[in-house]
Amino acid sequence: MIQGKVLRVNLTTGEIGEEILPEAILRRYYGGSALASYFLLNELLPGTDPLGEDNVLVVTCSVLSGLPVPGASRYTIAAKSPLTGGFGESEAGGFFAPELAKAGFIAAVIKGRASKPVYLWVKDGVAEIRDAAHLTGKMTGEAEELIRQELGDSRVIVAQTGPGGEKLVKYACVLNNLKHANGRTGMGAVFGSKNLRAIAVRGTQKIEAADEKAIKELTKWFSDNWRDNVANDRLNKYGTAHNLSSLQATGTLPTFNFRQGVFDGAENLRGETMSATILEKNEGCYACPVRCKRVAKDETYKVDSRYGGPEYETIGGFGSLCGIDDLRVVAKAHELCNKYGIDTISASVAVSFAMECFDTGIIDLETTGGLDLSFGNTESVLKLVEMIGERQGIGHILGDGVVAAARQFGKGSEKFAIHVKGQEFAAHEPRGKTGVALGFALSPTGADHLEMAHDIGFADYTRALENIGVLGIHEPVDTMDLTYKKLRLFFNLQLTNSFNNCAGLCNLVTAPAFTFTFEKLVEIVTAATGWRTSMWEFMKVGERANVMARIFNVREGFTPADDTLPDRFFQPLEHGPLTGVAIDREKFHQLIRDYYRLSGWDEEGVPTRAKLGELDLEWLAPR
Amino acid sequence: MMTFINENQTYFQNTNYLGLPDKNTTFSFTAGTTIRQLLEQYDICYKKQGVAFVVEGHLVQSTYLLRDGDAVTVIPIIAGG
Asked: Is residue A232 within 8 angstroms of chain B, CB to CB?
């Protein structure tokens, strides 16, 4: 198992140091989200300006990092979010975490602000702050090349923000290898605010598992079995893009800024269509044979395949949400976002927000600088993404997020701002899946579609339902259910996804829906760490992470009023199979109040002293 | 002797997701057959295929009782992405 060494960097003073976390801390937090909160709750004062010098930027791997286990390639970047003013956290896969682990560190805590642009270079236990003025304004592709050339090693892994982060777009992101994004909550803007362009890392140390033989056997087991898991096989063939047809068929494909759940052009956006047209090849993350990532190329729109290809969220976001039915345009929008280092999800919702404002006459050609923002205008979408990245004209306004943009546009435009807590929605229509609806409302990072594995997997006697039998859930729950049944499902599945975010695990290789069952995960962690562990411990780690994030937000002044959905979703849909369907406002908010109680939180949604004590978080209890 | 042919038909879309060769398939069935039972007759284990079923735009379980003329869309179960 990786040692608990933490790299400490102060960009103001240039000081670099390290500390070793005792195993007890690693055992309590595992890494990722929970470990990030451990640092933030200890070292970041509430009320800090997220784009100021005093924000604390944390990069956390996990106790699995560096081991060649499929799906264990992920890591977390966290800080106070410039987008929401609350808990900022985003995970990514790719190749950064294994490299940082092999370079000797489980985490990095970065404070202060450099007086001029810099990047951090970490190689085999040694860290250095290097000048990055020559990278300023360069797109991520060029910057990565320059860094690798300068360091004389093409195998250096670079996690960076782009010009979007330098310009403090509030949803700027961090990408490793140009295409694996810590997408959400504006972590790229935090990089930019610290004058930190990138973290480059190279590690050659081998991470020893407690039981090397068992790790090899588990890796081989995955290799031998993943194709038999149809969901994993489909990801290999079509990527997450294949989600789109399911969403269209169930009326849950967000269209025209969440006005509708069905889109006439959906056929052209399907995963199978991508495979037949713009797909150059597929690729994957460290040690994972599923290779679900797409690589897209197109001559007409000059899509550079270095930047990979769109996941479902990008296809929904820049496709149906904006009324675009051309995958080549979606791929180009994706490429631009990755070049500039901005989150495709928030960016696409900012664009569709502007489109609805244009459609309803709230903004006009004067406000847009002559850009016709009718839904479906492909040229305008691509131009607007560039303008957001450059913070030009209306792009400057939209770069602050839909909440801020609505404040600027006025005239009632806030009803078109589809966000929770300031973060824009991902491309899933909550009126068709109440578990996802709860996730959007309750996620500490604002609207997030990955709080739990989606409802559809548990609406019938499926493999996914079978897999959560070990958690004591055996009966299907209707996708539209708003009773204790959905609450129970949500609470438990929120914990397993949260655990994944702590253990650096990918949701797309693990239970409920994918190849590694929960039983296998216990074997993996035991083999990696030598700990005698169980799903119970894992669920508690996940819960610990959620409670810590909640405490972070409570400290920043968030209240139960923030655990809700935009008004739009309490109004009925008017098209497609879900015509007439809305979320029942009363029942939904009652379920949220029940969620607090079930979670061991008080009526104000604050974790109680008893719950904190149970989770070994007594140090967070008010004195 | 009179023979009654009690044959109903159902049209499945996206049967490739069930591992069948064709994108669309028409099945015959006798009244009282559920989706699960129908597929079992063709040696298809729906659970293994990771799919859900949509009839008239609504998700139905595999225990759904088929009616003559039903159009069933097979969709892959998704988890978010």
From this structure: no
pTM: 0.97
User: pLDDT digit string (tens) for A34-45?
Assistant: 999 999 999 999
Crossing angle of helices A212-225/A518-529, nearest 10°?
Answer: 150
Q: Hey, what's the torsion of the CAs at A8, A10, A13, A16, to 10 degrees?
A: 20
User: Would you tell me how many other CB atoms lie within 10 Å of the CB of residue A205?
Assistant: 14
The answer to whether the Cβ–Cβ distance between A576 and B61 falls below 8 Å is no
Residues A146, A160: contact at Cβ < 8 Å? no
Report d(CA B21, CA B11) in Å as an integer: 15
User: Rounded distance, CA A259 to CA A556, Å?
Assistant: 32
């109040």: which residue's tokens?
A593
Which residues pair with residue B53 across a beta bridge?
B60, B74
Is ipTM strictly over 0.85? yes
Give the gap in angstroms from C-alpha A607 to the nearest C-alpha of chain B: 28
The alpha carbon dihedral of A471, A496, A282, A316 has a sign of positive
Q: Which of B54, B58, B79 sits opposite A513 (nearest CB)?
A: B79
Question: Cβ contact (<8 Å) for A460 and B76?
Answer: no
Do A461 and B62 lie within an 8 Å CB cutoff?
Answer: yes
Q: Are A327 and A315 in contact (CB under 8 A)?
A: yes
Share of chain A above pLDDT 90, in %: 99
- A32-43 helix and A484-503 helix, angle to the nearest 10 degrees: 80
Residue B17 is encoded by which pair of tokens? Answer: 């997701």
CA A61 – CA A49 distance, rounded (Å): 25
How far apart CA A268 and CA A260 sit, in angstroms, is 17
Dihedrals phi, psi of A294, to nearest 5 degrees: -95, 150
The residue among A238, A246, A273, A574 with the most chain B CBs within 10 A of its CB, best to mutate, is: A246
Q: Which residues contact A556 (CB under 8 A, 6 or more apart)?
A: A46, A47, A80, A85, A86, A87
Per the CB < 8 Å rule, is B79 touching A514? yes
Q: Which pLDDT tens digit goes with each residue over A526-540? A: 999 999 999 999 999
